Amino acid sequence: MEDSCAVDISLMVALVVVLALFFDFTNGFHDTANAMATPIATGALKPRVAVSIAAVLNLVGAFLSTEVAKTISGGLIREGDGGIQITTTMIFAGLIGAIMWNLATWLFGLPSSSSHALFGGLIGAVVVGAGFDAIDPGVLLSKIVFPAVLAPFMAAGIAFIVTKIAYRVTSGPNAHLTRQRFRVGQIFTSSLVALAHGTNDAQKTMGVITLTLIAAGFQATGTGPEFWVIAVCALAIALGTYVGGWRIIRTVGTGITDVSPAQGFAAEASTTATILASSHLGFALSTTQVASGSIIGAGLGRKRGSVRWGVARRITMAWLITLPCAAIMAAIAEFVARLGPLGILGDAIVGATVIVFMFVRGRKNPVNHKNVTGEIPTARHSPTVAMPKVPPSIASAKPPKPSATAVESLNQDLS
Amino acid sequence: MIEWGSFLIVGVVSLVAASAVATIASFGIKLYENALQQRVTHESSGRVAITVARILFGLCALIVVFGVYLIVPAFH
Questions:
Q1: How many beta-carbon pairs below 8 A join chains A and B?
Q2: CB-based contacts of B12, cutoff 8 Å, min separation 6
Q3: If 0-12 CB within 10 Å is exposed, 13-18 middle and 19+ buried, where does residue A172 land?
């Protein structure tokens, strides 16, 4: 604790708990899209209903398991005996980096992985606080970098095949009406994704808070999260999910491709299967990357379907830079925090200012439950009609009438 | 460094599971919709088709229940 000894330890713990819960909140609202973007886009669920279901399932899910909470960094940081001692200040700085990055990607409507942001933040802070030796590069590559590259390809491939199957089986005279019925299936698949999310993601914050309490000597080493920690984390992630990162929902639901109910079902079924298989067969994959990959695959799987590669490229870019960017911001925060109490105060003030700025900036072109699906009328009713390809990187491009509103506002978001 | 074995297993299991669900659900809704159409045009009552469709939907429900089972650690 030598670098934070000047600050009252309980004050520091309180600060970290508040930050951790705020991170949990951003985690929830960042990831609503994973489960609910496609059912909202196809009209299977009304936006408000969708986020409510996701919120409840996240809340329930958070109480179901505390397995992951026991090890937050999963061996990424050499902690414990023979390794380094993670200080409260490092966790504080790491959380600042993670929150900043989550909010920045939210502002741009990009579905980046909250876990990567958290790991990145912790890595950045630990490297400044304890040097590069504290990080295990092998684990970093095998648990974060490679899965991040592989997950979207695998999910896209599976969703591509599943979409083909769904279209092949339902082809025939009543194909159009038949495929609308996939909406009911979407409700179930997306609910499973939301539940799985709750059991996984809330635990990371529980882990962070527990680690802090242990580091500060408020809790015995080797014990699991206290009940109040589980409860507040569950509430924070559920609240975040309910508030709904509408910008991200719009990008994932209508930005990548124009999802028909059959595609939405295929994408969600692939996401659910991949997430469940990966968490039970020992190859952890990021839910966010699997979900986005599935939608790209579903977009490609439909005859004459189109994927807006500009949007896909931006999303991929966000994935690649999430960990380093969160790490850099956390490293700066840790560097400042090491100056002493004034440094920590400075971090807190700058952090709070940036957070407020991003929310205010977000209000300039708000995305909410009313405009989240934009106006893409043809996509809902005629699954075989290819939507016009619009390069989203060119903000000034004039897309054809039907999808003008949605794409233009998306451009504003992304540019 | 990367465990290609488990990656491959995850990929294959996911593909098989997702394809199975999609196939069952697709056949179910196709049978169901066709039966409804035939009922409208008085071609047939479509009772058999609807029963088969319901069985397929039941199978899907079982798969969803299995998914919940996998997600909730207290069950296993």
A1: 129
A2: none
A3: exposed
Both structure tokens of B58 = 């039941």
| Alpha carbon distances (Å) from A323 to A90, A122, A326, B7 | 16, 10, 5, 22
Q: Which amino acid is at B51?
A: T
Q: Helix (H, G, I), strand (E, B), or coil: what is residue A84?
A: strand
In B, minimum Cα distance to A146 occurs at B2
Hey, which residues does A79 pair with through a beta bridge?
Answer: A84
Q: If chain A, 415 residues long, is cut into consecutive pieces of 10 residues, what is the mean pLDDT of each piece?
A: 59 92 93 93 94 95 73 60 76 94 92 90 91 82 82 94 95 86 92 88 86 82 84 95 91 91 94 88 83 93 87 90 94 93 92 92 86 53 39 41 44 45
Do A289 and A319 meet the contact criterion of CB atoms below 8 Å apart? yes
Enclosing H/E stretch for A39: helix A9-42
* A150: closest chain B residue by CA: B7
Residue with token string 């970290």: A16
pTM tops 0.90, yes or no: no
Mark yes or no for CB contact A281/B6 under 8 Å: yes
Quick one: which of B61, B56, B75, B18 has its CA closest to A276?
A: B18
Indicate yes or no: CB of A199 within 8 angstroms of CB of B72: yes
Under a CB-based contact definition with an 8 Å cutoff, are residues A161 and A301 in contact? yes
